[in-house]
Write a structure and sequence with these properties.
globular, 257 residues, 5-stranded mixed beta sheet, alpha/beta
Length: 257
């Protein structure tokens, strides 16, 4: 009997400790954290600022990540890394999910699971205002810049054009501003931000050459528990218009700056 009493006491102590660590019973703690990976070089979706929605990080994706965490009684943490490292970090367990304006491609679906798409985008060309580039075919004999790992790089590869890849969108755009390249291929919303920030640039669209793409959040393959939580939040934000409002808000802010 004494042994059973001691065992019960030990069990109660363990439960009490566990409750203390996890805010069991509705304590003031927000609960566990969900760690997202991003590449904060992709305004208006993710970028670094003095006062962001998640620490120093702001943008459409950051606001979505924060809402997902809050909907599930969690806190959102953000790990900023190179775009090409995100899926590797996810598979290695360094992060729980990736939110980085990432296109849900069939190739990526082989190694990760994607959420419900939350944004549809397309690729465009940023050129100088006096450029003679009016369509994707006009890039054939031009110096092209892309961002490494982004959809724009894949598109240019598929067209068979040579190009130079940069790790940051700002670096590619500055090549264009400084006359060191003729065109930058990048996502439409981000292009608006860069054109708004730099005089003498314009956007050229070619719907026939660039298909639309869908952004989604990536999780480890088979992590249905987290994926279900993310999808529930995304579905709610799509239904109530929150994501559309965020897209308008951040895009307008980007073009006004």
């Amino acid at each position: 009997m004494k042994r059973a009493t001691k065992l019960l006491a030990a069990t109660l102590a363990m439960v009490t400790a566990a409750c203390t660590l996890t805010a069991c019973g509705g304590g003031s703690s927000k609960g566990e954290a969900i760690t997202f990976g991003t590449n904060a070089e992709f305004p208006p979706f993710e970028y670094v600022t003095s006062s962001g929605v998640i620490g120093e990080f702001d943008g459409i994706d950051m606001a979505i990540a924060k809402q997902i965490a809050e909907d599930n009684g969690m806190t959102a943490k953000m790990e900023n890394m190179e775009f090409d490292s995100l899926l590797v970090a996810l598979q290695n367990g360094q992060i729980d999910a990736v939110i980085a304006g990432m296109t849900a491609t069939d190739e990526r679906r082989e190694t990760v699971d994607f959420s419900t798409p939350y944004y549809t985008a397309t690729q465009v060309m940023i050129v100088r205002e006096d450029s003679d580039i009016a369509a994707a075919a006009d890039m054939a004999d031009k110096k092209i810049c892309v961002i490494q790992g982004y959809t724009g790089e894949v598109c240019v590869q598929d067209m068979g054009y040579s190009y130079e890849a940069f790790k940051k969108g700002t670096e590619a755009v500055m090549e264009l501003v400084n006359g060191k390249c003729d065109v930058v291929v990048i996502d439409s919303a981000t292009a608006q931000k860069y054109v708004g920030d730099n005089e003498g640039l314009k956007i050229v669209e070619d719907p026939g050459a660039f298909e639309s793409e869908e952004y989604a959040i990536a999780v480890q393959k088979g992590n249905t528990e987290l994926l279900d939580k993310i999808n529930k939040s995304i579905d709610k934000m799509i239904a109530d218009g929150s994501i559309n409002e965020l897209a308008v808000k951040y895009t307008e802010e980007a073009t006004e700056e």
